[in-house]
Amino acid sequence: MEKVAEILAEASAEVVEPRFRALAAGEVIEKAPGEIVTVADREAEVIITRRLQELLPVPVVGEEAVAADPSLARALGTEPAVWLVDPVDGTSNFVAGRPDFAVMASLVRAGHTVASWIYQPVSGVSYSAELGSGAWRDGHRLVREPAGDDPEKWRGWVKSRYVEPALHHQLQSNARAFGPITPGLRSAGMEYPQLAEGSHEFILYWRTLPWDHAPGSLLVTEAGGVSARLDGSAYRPEPPGCEDGLLVACDPAVWERTREILLDLAFED
């Protein structure tokens, strides 16, 4: 566990942090409409991929490698073990000079995330989780206390950018039943740890790219929370385009009540 954390921090120190608020002309590229990548993303992924495979020689499904060759993501369903890598989670924040970005990795075995790591370069804080063994921040165990039973006091993020218009309107309307609701930090590697540590009670995600959600989902569940699809099935990392919709909450009671309020009748049979 410690070795992977070192790999992420060292790759960040080598190629990510030196370019924070110092990106040169031509170092930011549009890889798809509305999607940007930087040389720091690409270089960090190469370093992390090589070093993870030295630890365990299994396929690496990296965000930037999959952008170049989408077929690589199939390994999540065909290989017994796979590394997942997000070299800079929150690239738009990184490019804009905002501190909300992270470097992330996870290990998936037989379709289940069994270990995960999140490194936040600006603060230097490192999170990790191991299936069945717990979640940690810089070596200190994380245990998320259950929330109270009043939804009006619950804080959440509703990430509805990719939701179809009718459901988007419903979510925004129903979210008024809660306490403060915001669109999020544009980085799963910043959002999941905040929920695990107590600043929020739930997050509703829609698009669920595996390198974004495998690390944080394990962190939250190992801290005592829930990360599940809208039908109640536990989150499992899948290739892009397989499933949308993911509700993450600090405890089972908050998950059930939040789903009931936010989704109303839209997903009833």
Structure in words:
35% of the residues lie in helices and 26% in strands. The longest helix has 17 residues, at 39-55. It has helices at residues 2-16, 39-55, 63-68, 75-78, 91-96, 165-174, 188-197, 210-222, 252-263; strands at 28-32, 35-38, 60-62, 81-89, 102-109, 112-120, 125-130, 134-137, 140-142, 156-158, 181-182, 202-207, 226-228, 244-249. Helix 7 (188-197) runs parallel beside helix 8. It has 269 residues and is an alpha+beta fold. It has a seven-stranded mixed beta sheet with strand order 3-4-5-6-7-8-9, sandwiched between helices. The N and C termini lie far apart (43 Å). It contains nine helices and 14 strands. The model is unreliable at 265-269 (pLDDT under 50). The protein has two domains: 2-142, Fructose-1,6-Bisphosphatase, Chain A, domain 1; 151-263, 3-Layer(aba) Sandwich (D-Maltodextrin-Binding Protein, domain 2), CATH 3.40.190.
